[in-house]
Amino acid sequence: MSAVLEVTGLRKVYEGGGRRVEAVGGLDFTVPAGQLACLVGPSGCGKTTLLKCVAGLMRPTSGSVRLAGEPVTEPPPDMAVVFQEYGRSLFAWLSVADNVALPLKEKGVPRARRAELVRRALADVGLSDAAGAHPWQLSGGMQQRVAIARAIAYEPRVLLMDEPFAAVDAQTRAELEDLIRGLWQRLGVTVLFVTHDIDEAVYLGQRVLVLSASPTRVQDDLAVDLPDRRDQLTTRGDVRFTELRARVYARVQAAKRGERPAPDPSAPPAPAPR
Amino acid sequence: MSRGGGAAARLGRRALRVCALPAGLVALWWAAAASSRSYYLPAPDAVAVTFAEVWFSERILADALPSVVRLLAGFALAAVLGVALGTAIGSSPRLRAFTEPVLEFWRAVPPPVLVPLLILLAGIDDAMKVLVIVSGCVWPILLNTVEGVRAVDPVLADTCRSYRISGFTRLRTLVLRSASPQIMAGLRQALSIAIILMVISEMFASSSGLGFTIVQFQRGFAIPEMWSGIVLLGLLGLALSLAFQRVERSVLDWYHGLRAATRGE
């Protein structure tokens, strides 16, 4: 299957106040169409910088990002981003339904089709009853569901998620993880999921990319060979889950200690697509 | 007691709370007027009778109405100007750095001193009075709009960019709406400034208006009439402020809800 997302030699250097900080240093990876890939790394490792470059919200210092072969220089029309700060990424003055509908309106989707997409997306995230509410009338987990509904209603080819569940409680987080797996399986969208939570990365992904400490490189790239049907109880109790988690954990610890990946990573094992 | 009776009692208590202080102040005025017997301090009942005589006549059309029209025209013009310039300046750091010293200077100039200048430039007709009101009202609106536009949440701005929301939709749904609490605060300040400047502009070369009429009464020693004009100005200010509150409540409904939600109800 062809790569829908290609990141080649991506570097981002911040300069200012006489200081020069290399946040992302020479990053290469590709994501095949339809894959759910998780990026995990030590905190402060430049994950958000990387994601912003991929989303076209920030220009890399060098290197390139390609979406379906086209270079990304500005936010592309077939990509959606779900941010960590759900409370700040929703329009407090618009109703839930209007929040979901706004990008579609701007995209020029006809009214009837728009209404249908909004209705379906809200049903998909279990918020059909909240269409008329304002975001601040909902709990944190429900607000993040609104942001997810807005992203899937947009019908993107690639869905980027920047630590989307870092700010919700553990139970809500488990529910949202299952929601994302369910949506991904049903919609066939490519998902790039950034997280600092190792368990979450292994539980969600078909593949986990472990990032090094800043300047970020790919430290390890492993396929998650767990069954496609996963649930919070049996999957997390699975021996294979524990092994994978241990491996990712060891790599993240190595990254924290500052160990660098091998200078020439001999073609990382391309995980089998779904 | 029936539910209807309870509601009536609540309404009665509320009316009592609202009216108690004004009633007390009028009583105090009464006592002061009765004990002083000064010519310049008529009793409230005399002022009330004069008020009806003076203002329930064609004078309300000849003097009060032009004042209100000038006030609203000046306020509206200042609002459009302040929000438009404020949005432009708030959106561009370069423009802000460029304009800041000049804005600070003009803001520091008290608007009443512009009256003689504006008489020379714009004559003594309505245009001058509206310009005086605009020149004072525009600053709180402009400066608050700049602050509001600067404070647009970066995450929400990124959200707009990633969904390719730009141009007029971005201005209307992101910039102006997220700045609306500050813009409304600026408009509220501007409204009280507008009333003051309306009166002042009419005290200079003028032939109609509330400010003009009050000064006329004072010069003619029509003291109860003068007092009735002051009362009318007070009532006008009160009415405008209540109307503004209504508008604000509907525009900023989301903001009050959001604040209540973040405070934990």
Please describe what this structure looks like.
The complex is a heterodimer of chains A (274) and B (265). In chain A, 46% of the residues are buried. Chain A has helices at 47-55, 86-89, 96-107, 111-124, 140-153, 170-187, 198-204, 232-237, 239-256; strands spanning 3-16, 19-32, 36-40, 62-67, 70-71, 79-82, 158-162, 190-195, 207-211, 218-223. Chain A folds into 2 domains: 1-78 and 158-274, P-loop containing nucleotide triphosphate hydrolases (Rossmann fold, 3-Layer(aba) Sandwich), CATH 3.40.50.300; 87-155, no CATH class. Helix content of chain A is 37%, strand content 24%. With 274 residues, chain A is α/β, with parallel strands linked by helices. The termini of chain A are close together. Chain B is mainly α. Chain B folds into 2 domains: 1-37; 39-262, MetI-like (MetI-like fold), CATH 1.10.3720. Helix content of chain B is 85%, strand content 0%. Chain B contains 11 helices and no strands. Chain B has helices at 3-36, 44-55, 59-91, 93-108, 114-122, 126-150, 154-162, 167-203, 210-219, 223-251, 253-262. Chain B starts with a helix and ends with a helix. The model of chain B has no long low-confidence stretch (mean pLDDT 89). Chains A and B meet through strand 6 and helix 3 of A and helix 7, helix 8 and helix 11 of B. Chain A: One of its GO terms (molecular function) is ATP binding. Chain A: Keywords: ATP-binding, Nucleotide-binding, Transport. Chain A: Residues 253-274 are annotated as: Disordered. Chain A: This is NitT/TauT family transport system ATP-binding protein. Chain A: Residues 263-274 have a biased composition (Pro residues). Chain B: Residues 64-248 form the ABC transmembrane type-1 domain.
